Queue: 2 jobs
Job 1
Amino acid sequence: MPLLRVDQLSKRFGELVAVDRVSFEVREGEIYGLLGPNGAGKTTTISMLCGLLRPDGGGVLVAGRDFWSDPQAARRIMGVVPQEIAIYEELSGRENLEFWGRIAGLAAAAARQRAGELLEALSLADRARDPVKKYSGGMKRRINLGCALLHRPRLLLLDEPTVGIDPQARANILEFIRGLVREGTAILYTTHYLEEAETLCHRVGVIDHGRLLAEGTLEELQRRIGDARLFIMEGRLDGATPDAWPGFREQFRVIQQSERQLVVAATAERDPADCLKQLLALPVRLENVTLKRPSLNDVFLQLTGRELRE
Amino acid sequence: MLRILLVKDLRRARRNPVPWLVSLGVPFLITALIGLAFGPSSGGGVGRIKLGLVDEDDSALTRMLRGGLNQEEAGKYLEPHFLTRAEALAQIDANKLAAVVIIPKGFTRDYLTARAPVKLELVKNPAESIHPAMVEEMAATLVTGLNAVARDLQADFPEWRAIFAGDQDVDLRTIGRLLENAGDRLHVARDYFPPLVTYEKATVAGPPAAGLGAGETRGIFAFLQLGMAAMFLLFMADHAVRDFYRELNLRTLARFRTLREGLAVFVAGKVAYAVAIVLLGAVILLGGAALVFQFTWRSPGALLGLVVAYALFGAGLMGFVAAVAGHERHADRINNLLIMILAMAGGCMFPPEQLPGFVREHLMPLMPTAWFVSAARGLQFGGGPAWTGAALKLGLVGGVLVVGAAALFRRRLAKGVR
């Protein structure tokens, strides 16, 4: 049974459809990545999953029970790490952890003990008494994460938890998250970083303009493009008309076309050397042709017609 | 839960004390400045005015006017020096006098023959500003009064002139008749003296008020500090309640809502925080003032009860305005203005007697600041409304405003406002 099931979730702000019939599920011991650019609807989705916003349509099941039938019970199961660093800068790291532990329902002694464990696990024990305002960005992010873990949630909702920190701090946080998954925690992880989604998530849902465009494992998503290979042709392509090239449409699918670049994928499994030979024979002046495995960005490109980084 | 939230907020306040120190320090400063300038230790308001009087007419009438300057009431404010013109001008040059009033020769004759409106000469010391201006006002008032009397009693003036000039023996019966005539006319004219639009209110005699300074030489500090406290405690309540918006911006409120269902406990926590801050502030402002300015609060228990109710009112009002304003910056502006209006119309900044009649009689009774200040001053000086009634009203209004604020915040958050 999935720990989180989202079914046809929708939210509208006036004329703007922020989330449009989004459905997915997250299982125990799994990281489900919600990948999309800023404004795609990721945070609105998370806000509905944790009860900050009431959905206009659809439902959310947490551990098999409708969230709104017993919101407090659902909240005991889940922990939420907001995108912003939602902690008190005047308080120390330990005070923040203990406070959020008490709010989550722990007794004072239990909150104190759990805060100590988390400070160790997050490598912050030596700075536990310092006010958070004296922490580095990465340390604040770690405390921000820790504040959601006091009550040992089985389901963790992480909303872009590594935004704005250096690669080393990001690697530490990602490693910590992998440790949580090994212990069986189910994680919903929103991000607009392709590398994070590719290396961290077991399954990824691609979201844009409030709609879930595709989901699956990285391999499943790559297969949507075709045969797991892309040919990137560079040269003078401003007047190129692939539709007019004889037999081209039967053999290749255009992923992206610009004045300098044409990205195509073979429509069926074929020898790359044959494909390359055929492309070089096209009636255009090419300066370079490269072959690569499709990334999530390519998937996003194919699904939306634009790059995730734009 | 409330205690956990309160401890957290008080810790945060302790780590960032500057806004609170400003709110606590300013009332002390203002009270000290005003108290020292106008309080009993200053020797009585602006001090006695050193006034030179040159009587070049030297008649019975002018001798009477000169005598008036030495009378008890005038003596409180004036320190008259009777000099010749040359002496007086020399003392002005030496900065020993604030002003010189010269009664010119022929003053009595001109006055009693009604040849022309009477005139006094005034020489002001240019090195001073307040005292000469006061003398000028007094001289103008005197001249206006004399001219008004002249118009009313002109028929009797020949006889008066004869008496003052010593043309006839002083006949006491004649003087008695003239005085009776003057009294009758002034009595009849009394109805025409007040302005066309008047404002009167009958007051029921209450127990005699001790009044400022009656057996309480430091009373002015207590009087002022209560008014200052009423105003600055509202500023503190405002700052404490607006922490709600800071939590909204920090997203800590959102985090709270991911862990706890409902907003009531969070709003209650902020109200408790505001009440605690106001109470702490009141203890420092009122207790500290008693220590610094060396007076004692006569009913500290009742005053504390009143302050608790006022704190609830302050938290409720500021919270309600903040919820209506919808944004911390807007709430800040509105609340600053509102507090100033409440403080002025509520008699916090000025003694109520100094307020315009309309404000004093119609607006002030509606001002919760006035409920607090008048009841608190009543506890200290006597004569005010019962503190229990004031506390009840403040608590009730505060409670209603808190509920309203909570409902408004809840509605805003439900709409997804961040």
Note: The radius of gyration of chain A is 23 Å.
Job 2
Amino acid sequence: MSLVLGAFAQVLNIKMVLIMILGSFVGIVFGAIPGLTYSMGIILLLPLTFHLPPLMAVTLLLGVYIGGMTGGSVSSILLGIPGTPSAAATCLDGFPLSKRGMAGKALGTALVSSIFGGLLSVVTLMVVAPIVAKFALKFGPAEIFSLVFFGFSTICGISMGNVLKGLISGFIGLLFTTIGIDPVMGMSRYTFGIGQLISGVDLLAFMIGMFAIPQVIKILSIDESLLTRKISARVSTQYPSLAELKRMFGLMVKCAFIGIGIGAIPGTGGPIAAFLGYDQAKRKTRRSEPALEGVAGPETANNGVTGGALIPMLTLGIPGDPATAILLGALLIHGLKPGPMLFTQHADFIYGMYAALIVIHLIVLVMQGFGIQLFVKVLNFRKSYLYTTILVLCTIGAFAVNNNEFDIYVMVFAGFLGYLLMKFGYPVAPTVLALVLGPPMEENFRRALILSQGDFGIFLKSPISWFFYLATIFVLAGQARRSFLAARGGSATAGKRA
Amino acid sequence: MKKDRYFSVLVLGLCAFWLVSSRSIPPATMPGAPGPKFFPYLVMGCLAVFALLQFALSFRNPKETVSPPTPIPIRTLPASEKTEGEGIGEDDEGGCVDPDDLVPDRRSLVASFLLVLLYVVGIDLVGFYLATIPAVFLGLFIAVKGKTPWYKLMLPTALITAAIYGVFTLALRVNLPAGKLF
């Protein structure tokens, strides 16, 4: 009890509340504006956190994460343009409801269900994470390697519905992790005569490049009027009635747990959970017409992902989605190594984070509920101003990490690579996640072999390793089968939504 | 698909480049233990296999063409469920739009790439602010695609640069690149 009270005492002070308000606001704005994503918001705010204490820094970024996941529904409902990929399913019933004069109700339902899903996921995180962390303490190098291998493979396999493309993208990322000092013997490799590469590719600069630059280039090149629709009427949030809430409660609980489960599987994330939530909503209503359930289902599920994705990130150091990969990078920058030891060595930080997550959800509920007019105005903001400013912010962010101009070049290289991947239809997320998972994968792989004196049998000795290898095969085979069926069926959208 | 074929060749080229670069890496110093080349070789091998597989699969359906993006379906409410509440108005026609499906203008795309590249080189040479002012102006110029006269972009350029200066230099005192020439 004293831990819980202490945790809330850590976050309920003026500075922390202001930080949470700032993070939530930036998150809702980045979530609401089509083309911007909360991952981009997190990565752009990360350099501003360098001088903040770890809890304050992570709280700011969590505010963007939760605000972004919730704010995505605003443009989905009002414009019919998903603010984030996770809000694409909300568009299906949200926009028709809006066109028929129920925008306020749809926005209110989206907000309440998002917060419900998010809070339930935080409670699940608080219950499940310590158990997983305790179990993970038993892992040796071989088990950690199998776990990282599982995380990496599923991320590659599931990311865009095409296993092979995901794997190619992920292995390109792994190749870049081999640049710089070798993690076991300290030998320099693949520096190509460039002195700055001895310390490796800077993760943050690479992430900024991968997530932001391709979007900046693309949006500057398209007609911005295509991403803008006039909102002719005044809109305010109308919360669902008690009867409506009672009607949707079962669905919301179910979708929240779908979101949590999906979030906990590395590489899945919000879009998949949201479409599964939408599917549940349609099963419940048993009619094809748009209904509030079609908004509540996907919104509860995609916010359920937030807490779920934090479980493997905090307990095992495996990010569930790109946003948690950036959060993992943020923790590392602030000297906190995610994994089971985080729960024993920095328990106050973990509890502070739980408390912050709860308060952030309440702030988002109030902010988006009362400030909807402001966010509607933000939707009308000219994209040309926004993206030009983001380009400048990207260079500041890349430079500010190490005060090194070379990192700006790294950012541009990663940006061009990201655009190339996007252009050829390859997912970007596996490359970035490989940069996070590559070093622990190599380090544990080689440590295990050193311990076994070169005997590869060490990787198959433990039942934990077997479990992760079988899980990897199961996930990849399942995804490959779905890809094959989608290709045979000629479904262009199936792969994208999977 | 041709796209996959070209990309597979690029990936194989990347693997070959990495392989050639591996020659300068010293061998393992601990007997029996994998050296610094081991993991990169493993990654290169897997990547090359995947790229070859993709290359082979790209011939599987040569007639396949890029299908147009499928619009997200929109259903309308039955008249009985229409309400008098708030909304965006029935006059707003059209379905959901996926931002990923929008096709960039080729000339603007090339200009955007050049802008990013020149901006970074500019920062390196003349410093952050001297490079940022023209970069912001050019970014806006590319984005408006001739719909706004160039002189009307000068005010937003000044405002954006001033806002960046106010936040990062005056308020946060962030150290920004100085440039090699000045």
Note: Chain B touches chain A through 97 residues (CB under 8 Å).
